[in-house]
Design brief:
The chain is 58% helix and 3% strand. With 295 residues, it is mainly alpha-helical. The longest helix is centred in the middle third of the chain and has 23 residues.
Length: 295
């Protein structure tokens, strides 16, 4: 067992994952149905109003204190549908309800605006934007959707996105990876093998996320490389098994090893085929995202 594998597996058991789990996110009741929109003033019942204490807790804050906690709270409420489209958000009311300063509210709303969740216009104020305006590839929105009422749609969409881009990424990466990257991929495959043997799903998922991000980073395509962080986030908050590589099994380990070998030898077709097989979880996936035609 390599030193890297031992270090990563030990760290995974002792350190916090840095990704909020379902229990951390469910601080208020989600809407009964995704996308539900209720008219009138926001209903803050059930939310955690003591932001001072929340900010000192580790769960979900990602080390961002009160500002980060408020972004999490409001973002989750918007994504869940508790704050529907075109709902007004009054900064003064938010500050009073969560007992935070105007500065914290203002900066939090700016973050949400950058994510496409809200818009602020003169003489109109800040309002929630419709789903069509959201940056659905933002890691925070991926996380919030993964643990909200849209979790099933999120999982399906992530599966379809990965099934579309990652086989192509594997084909492009074949023979193009630097030696250090190739070694890192091999290390991740080894770590996954040891994790499966020890039943360590946390270490497996961490190594798996890095593996797939690395493949995208060595395609020579900057747009695909940009998606590496998104795929990594998607793997960590997918909300359950979506694809074969989300399951810590010997078969998944073998397919990762096949990808490593194909990339090292420059066998583009084999790399693409192994990645496609790895990402297939159900027979119906072939109907959702059909394989390329043979020409």
């Amino acid at each position: 067992m390599s030193t890297l594998a031992h270090t990563m597996m030990t760290a995974a058991r002792s350190a916090d994952t840095g990704v909020a789990g379902p229990g951390d996110l469910d601080r208020y009741p989600y809407a009964d149905a995704p996308g539900s929109e209720r008219v009138g003033t926001p209903n803050w019942d059930g939310v955690d109003t003591e932001m001072g204490r929340v900010g000192r807790r580790a769960s979900g804050s990602r080390g961002r204190g009160l500002h980060g906690q408020l972004v999490q709270q409001l973002g989750q409420m918007i994504v869940s549908g508790d704050l529907g489209a075109d709902r007004p958000l009054v900064p003064e009311e938010i500050g009073q309800r969560f007992e935070v300063s105007r500065t914290v509210v203002r900066e939090s709303l700016r973050v949400l605006e950058a994510k496409g969740l809200v818009s602020a216009r003169p003489n109109v104020g800040t309002r929630v934007r419709p789903v069509s305006d959201w940056n659905l590839l933002d890691p925070d929105i991926i996380e919030w959707r993964a643990f909200g009422p849209q979790r099933d749609d999120q999982r399906r969409e992530l599966c379809e996105l990965r099934w579309t881009i990652e086989p192509l990424a594997a084909r492009l990466a074949a023979g193009h990876g630097r030696e250090d990257v190739q070694q890192r991929l091999a290390d991740m495959a080894e770590i996954m093998a040891h994790a499966v043997a020890q039943g360590d799903s946390l270490t497996f998922s961490r190594a798996d996320a890095e593996f797939h991000a690395l493949v995208l980073q060595v395609t020579g395509n900057r747009m695909l490389e940009h998606l590496s962080g998104i795929v990594s986030s998607a793997l960590q908050v997918s909300g359950g098994p979506v694809t074969g590589c989300d399951r810590p099994t010997e078969a998944a380990v073998g397919l990762h090893a096949s990808i490593v070998e194909a990339l090292a030898t420059g066998d583009a077709a084999a790399a693409e085929a192994a990645m496609r097989q790895l990402l297939t979880v159900h027979p119906e996936v072939d109907h959702v995202v059909p394989a390329p035609r043979e020409h």
